[in-house]
Amino acid sequence: MDKCYVYEGPISSVTLPGGRDVMLHPGQSVALPAENPYVATLAARGHLTETPVSVKGAALHANAPGTETPARVKTPKSQAPKEETQDVR
């Protein structure tokens, strides 16, 4: 059964049994299987703190204001700042 944790460690990823890939970011709420040995190791090292949020609410909590990952915005070439060049003749 999955439990909800808050991850505090370096950015990382893990592939759990069954092929489930999980990205781990500092401050992120994540639902992980408590009986998994790797999850137990992360908790023992202080990288995971169990939270009282339900697994169903973990996805909602991860998307709560202030917890989302900033989106990258591409600037169209027409709006990109132009480099100044000098003619060196």
Q: Concise description?
A:
By secondary structure, the chain is α+β, with helices and mostly antiparallel strands. It is 18% helix and 28% strand. It contains 2 helices and 5 strands.
Description:
The protein is of the alpha+beta class and 89 residues long. It has a domain at 2-62. It is built from two helices and five strands. The chain has helices spanning 37-44, 55-62; strands spanning 2-7, 12-16, 20-24, 28-33, 48-50. The strands form two sheets. A three-stranded antiparallel beta sheet has the order 4-1-5, sandwiched between helices. A two-stranded antiparallel sheet has the order 2-3. Strand 2 (12-16) and strand 3 form a beta hairpin. 12% of the residues are buried. Residues 59-73 have low confidence and may be disordered.
